[in-house]
Fold:
Amino acid sequence: MDSVSFTTGEFKQEKTSAWLVAFIQFAQKLGALDVLGQVKIKMKEIEYTVHQKLITLLLSVVIGCRYTSDINHKLVHDKFAAQMMGMSRFPDQSQINELLRRADHNSVEQLKDVHQQLFMQNAGCLSTTGYTTADIDQSGLIANGKKYELASKGYFCKKKNQRGYQLSAAFCGEENSETLSVYLDPENSHCSTRFDDLLHDVLVKLKDVVKERRLILRIDSGYGSDENIQKIRYKVLFVAKAYSTVRASNIAKSIRKEDWEEIDDCDLRTTSFDGIHAFIWVVFIAHNLISWMKSTVFYESKLEDAGTKTLVEKLGTIVGEVRRTAQKIEIILPEISALARKFVESMQPKYEQLSLFSTS
Structure:
């Protein structure tokens, strides 16, 4: 692949998303896109391989597609980004829909393994020397359509007569915003059902932090039974929240507006239970990659502290023009955009491994 750099100017011909191109180059440096080739899904491979479809699904999250139909106008027409992945163009929504429909339990486990590999190789929370905070929590995902597999009625905060699922997750908070693990269950499942699984995943991924007694585990009151406390009291430092009716609002105050992500039945991508679970793992992988990109590529730049939502929904919509020369490729961003100017500044070389990015 020829050298790619970013600058500002007037548009002329070939267009692409500068954010997407920069992300692809970063992910390729980590080998993250190659690792997705380990995931096997039984389906015909005529125009595209399963690997190429999984890459497209991941990039659809990165570019801010809220529906699979968004792939048709946010990705399919970006031929430059597709060519970086060895494709003439990205697969359309119908092929991604079929990919998720055919995903099964084995696919979910393989995506979990991909997440594990990338995390152990790149996680920022593994390289810190101070305390690391990990959270375990549960959230409801509404899925009211009758076709959603295993969806059931249950409790959704401030919403009555809803059907859906329970998403149980573990993640590192504070400075390192990184996902650790995730499970999907019918809505009527109690949060304690997945406590042992999440605890195991946290202890495995953060084993060195645990050995050095630097892990602080934060759990909600729903996990705070005597039995669960006994499982962790001699292994990690922990904070167990007491029951409070204002818990959600208090937590909400600590989350920046730009980091909010709305989740509803439109975002689940498929009605297949395993397909939804597989998609959530792809989202968790994408989240970590973006987090690592912010802490390395955007380190000490004006975008280092930018919220993920800002990068995906705002920077991701800025279109650049591709200009090719015999020596290199330039992507020209609109000079009128303040965010585009910050992006170009952030992409200037800081380290040898980022030397692909330069100005003309």
Remarks:
- The longest helix spans residues 273-296.
- The first strand starts at residue 4 and ends at 8.
- The domain at 128-268 is CATH 3.90.350.10 (Transposase Inhibitor Protein From Tn5; Chain A, domain 1).
- Residues 115 and 285 are 6 Å apart (CA to CA).
